[in-house]
Description:
Blueprint: E1 7-21, E2 24-29, H1 33-44, E3 48-54, H2 61-68, E4 75-78, H3 83-102, H4 113-133, E5 139-143, H5 150-156, E6 162-166, H6 174-177, H7 183-190, E7 195-198, H8 201-214, E8 219-223, E9 226-231, E10 234-240, H9 247-254, H10 257-269, E11 274-281, H11 288-301, E12 309-316, H12 323-343, E13 351-355, H13 360-369, E14 372-375, H14 384-392, E15 399-403, H15 409-412, E16 417-419, H16 424-436, H17 439-455, H18 458-469, H19 481-487
Amino acid sequence: MRTPGELILVSNRLPATVECGPEGATLKPSSGGLVTALRPVLQSRNGHWIGWPGEDCLGEIERLVAREQSTAACHLVPVSLTPEEQKGFYAGFSNEIIWPLFHDLQSRCNFDPAYWKFYLTVNRKFADAVAKVADRDSIIWVHDYHLMLVGGFLREMGLKNRLGFFLHIPFPPLDIFEKLPWRSEILRALFDFDVVGFQTLRDQRNFAGCARRFLPNVELHRSHEQMIAEVDGRTMLIGSFPIGIDFKEFSDAAGKPQVAAHAAEIRRNVVGRQIVLGVDRLDYTKGIPERLKAFQHLLATQKEMHRQITLVQIVVPSRETIPKYQELKTEIEMLISQINGDYGDSGWVPIHYIHRNMERTDLLAHYRIADIALITPLEDGMNLVAKEFCAAQAGDQGVLILSEFAGAANQLRNGAILVNPYDIENVADALQMAFRMTDKERRRRMRKLRRKVRNEDVFRWCADFFSHLEVPGPQPAAGSTMKTKVTTLVPRIAPVKTG
């Protein structure tokens, strides 16, 4: 019998990945910040984590998950997706529509109606998986843009549990969001949650503005920094909950002897130069070409900095089967080749380019030896790389240059140098300022940053969101308008097979 009040966490991926190799399938556990923060909660509540495990590996998922349960922090519940669903739901609707649109890059969207049908189908699959394990006291927390309809489907099924949703990416302003053909359906489903959380106050305001425009039966009231929505006789909360990292774990790991030894080895290869570090997943929202052009402008205008500075750009492969990502990779590599060809010489390569998945010890070593972190996304929900860099700076010597369009900018503005990533001269000037900054000023700024990241870590984020989600509130009204409007979507697709 399950413990009352258990947590059911729902995300696109399980906190473990099925990997298929020559010797068969294995389940590799994840160790990200979300897993770390929620592990004690899930253990204490006998919780469930629902998600897609990756490749199906010829039907071995259930066996692998069952074997993993003995050492897992929670019960893993896999949701199997067909190759067609993976393509239409994940690569299609999630990453060719929602991802670019919510990052203010609507020109990259492909509003294929077939994608919407897959999005409905898969969200219904996830809701079915939740309904199978939930009891009446379960608290359900759904994560991110892949699963915005799950709350609507759960209410349609009659579940009256406390439902929470957290969006890890930005929520766009009205003039962007209204371009989405299925804007009202998604908003209605989001209003079936009891708590909807965003990274920043700007995202919260954008969401409220869209609700006022497209859902006239919703009444919104401000309550301190949160908002209260009255909808169909019930109350929901809309809040800003900036996510953090496990500061202590990052700081301790960066101080380990093997990390220090590897950092010293990297530093020997660029002795006498300041290292500028960029760390990004391959994505057009990260502003990598714009960053490279800013570095190119610095070299073109500040010749005295030649041989005195080196950019180490780490790009982690991502979604490279999607043509636009292949094009981005080619653009990045051509720019790096041009800059190194124009400005390098036999004793100095301006840009060191690393394109691969990086082991954690290697990444921490790069954080440690970087004199300057150059983190310039065009738009980002939060950007945890900025916080990881600060946590790894035990010597308080690094300088953080951060895009003002990163969600982390509001928290870190008192210590970072904020820049407009579209303004290459502005970014080049920031690099010059960081390069010439005194040790005293570097320490003053980094101490502020580390204090902020330490005090507002992932555990505080989790506790803050949970403190609102666990509060009992009015139950959803039976037969509400919201519920009815979501229900009318279902006949447009074939019945969902869950087997």
